[in-house]
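Researcher: Batch entry, complex prediction.
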Amino acid sequence: MNPDRPQQPDHHDEPQLPPELVRDLRALYPYPATPPAEVEQAVRTEAREQIGNLRRHRRWGFWSSIAACVGFVFIMQQVMRTSTLPEIDDRERLVQSPAPEVAGRGIAAMKIAEINPADIDGNGRVDILDAYVMARSMANESTSPNPAWDINADGTIDQRDIDAVAQSAVRLKGGA
Amino acid sequence: MTEPQTKDFRNDQQLIDALNRGDHTAFDTIYERYHRWVQHVALRFVGNDADALDAMQEVFGYLARHASQLTLTAKLTTYLYPIVRSQAINIIRKRNRRENLPIDELGRLTAPAADADVLHHDLATLVRDLPEPQREVLLMKALDGMTQDEIATALGIAVGTVKSRLHRAIDTLKRDPRTRQYFENK
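Model: Structure tokens for the complex:
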């Protein structure tokens, strides 16, 4: 270590071996014979294969990543498409319905309700709860009943429609 | 040493970077520059040309397989030395298993040739009698031209340990009347 600059690395700290010693040590440990040409060729050939494989793997990995990204975007687009909000008309029907259970349902439930008007709460099945929802809504005189609730199609929405929903629920449950 | 077949003036770092990118000409240049040295180091462990050749092939096969993962933080010889050592030990292990020999000699440098000429006989004897760790650092310094820092990195030991081993090896040679003359002429 240099005493003037103790913190600095000092190349004089590196021991120097006498050249004659180095010369004689090299004589004791001579270099081996030159490798045969076929050995050298084999080494280079194997190396080219290994390096070529690495390049192929890297390229495969790159294009796989691209394909995965494209696939992900495509799938997300499909998911977004099937999860869109209901049409305006259906949305208005949801708003008009006084039953809080109906509001906010997805369009799938709405379509089932269109097929079966007795599915008042739009959960995809007709049960006694539908009759309950209907009865409670009709008991609330401040709101108008949903025109689709005219289950018996007699032109009025009354207790007979509630009974029709209840009977429909029982019929379905009874398996008839 | 054979002459390189192509003139490539890239330094080791540039060659490794090119190898990382899959440039096989970089591998060719590295091979040209270092294959003889790799063989030489391997020979110090395995003791015969045939096994040294095998070790050299294994080392460059390893280099090619790990081409994309190499990060050079020191000289290439510093990086290659432990690989050569490891491959040489594997070859010795296989050979000893084949010949049912004990493996207590694994990792030991071979002694200088027993039939060293008269001029070098005394030096050969002294070097053979040096403890293995001292002999290894002495040879890395003398034959491979490595600095103490490079030796420490290659062997994975502290620089202080390298200094201590080298100092003791040189001290042994200085104090012995058979090799004192190397140092008295300075």
